[in-house]
Amino acid sequence: MEEEQRDKILSSLLLDEAEGISQQVVAWRREFHQFPELAFDERVTAARIVQILSDLNGMEVITGLGTSTSVVGLLRGDLRKPALMLRSDMDALALEEGTDLPFASCMPGLMHGCGHDAHMATLLGAATLLSRHQEDLARPVVFVFQPAEEGMGGAKSMVEGGLIKRFDVGMALGFHYWPHYSYGKLFTRPGPMTAISDQMHVEMQGVGGHAAEPHLVVDPIIAMAQLLLATQSLTNREIDPMKAAVVSFGRVEAGEAYNVIPERVHLWGTVRAFDADTRDYLRKRLEEVVPTISKAFRVMGTMEYMPYCPSTINDEALTERILELSRSLLGEENVMVMERPLFAGEDFAFYSQLVPSCFCIMGTGVEYGLHHPKYDIPEDLFPLAVAWEAYMGLLLDLQEVR
To answer: Which CATH number fits domain 196-309: 3.40.50.2300, 2.130.10.10, 3.30.70.360, 1.20.120.1200?
Structure first.
């Protein structure tokens, strides 16, 4: 009963303090949003994060761990216990913004269309609160601002740079705002949380020529069209319907003029699955289908298949403790256990392979989805998310989840 009363008082205090810094968190978010930067090029972003962290009492700031634009903040590194890691992604997308927000991207063709601007601002808000309450920390907290989450392996680079060992990370917590889920509610689940996510590049080379003389060329666009249709048959006719899988192509390049049949086409895509056997089967079939269709349509076809990141696995005991604490802060009705994992890929998976981890999402209830030119996040959610991350930072204890 005494512990329950303590947690209730702390919940109220952190929510009030988060509300008190909400304007600053919004300002940080808008600043990041206006100046998006792509993977491994987050230099202005990183410099601003260093500046903000350096102003916090007791915060040690480390840069360039594993990659030049990474930033790590360490609070109470003098406590000789395994640390809790709180992580935010930093990079933007190659996407032309269409929101018409007064703080829209100033960089043509670049946009924070996945919410990383808000993730950074939220984590900075949590760092601000925890720096005020650092004497109450039971173990160190490591604030990781990670570059290159969008398919470029930023988490893997930081792991290879010694992140986990250097800071004796004992558990890791990831957070993401998520559209199409109920506003202000927290969602997570024990076990698989995100899908295996791989990448591929297909090139088809034919013989170009005049569009009015197709009989004199070998058209790679026709071959490409057949390949696109064939790959969809792999998932809906060769994979058990009870085992979800996706093969999608998001980028296609072919030609420069309307009346010229090009010599070659390029396709970039992704394979998603929840188990390695399904992913391995799809890879094997793609490696068979690409040359077979290429031969049938007289083009030279090659495929480069690039395994990217595994499934993020939420540690069962840690997730149960996070659910318990989240209900204490947010209320029983605002914390949900998901029935199914997300089909998104998330390189937080590289941390979950090494230490007990939990990846959580907070619903925003917005119409437009991730990676959409009009994607936005309701800024009045920020105090709730800031308080939640700070609450986890104060109360999560590795001893309780072992």
So the answer is: 3.30.70.360
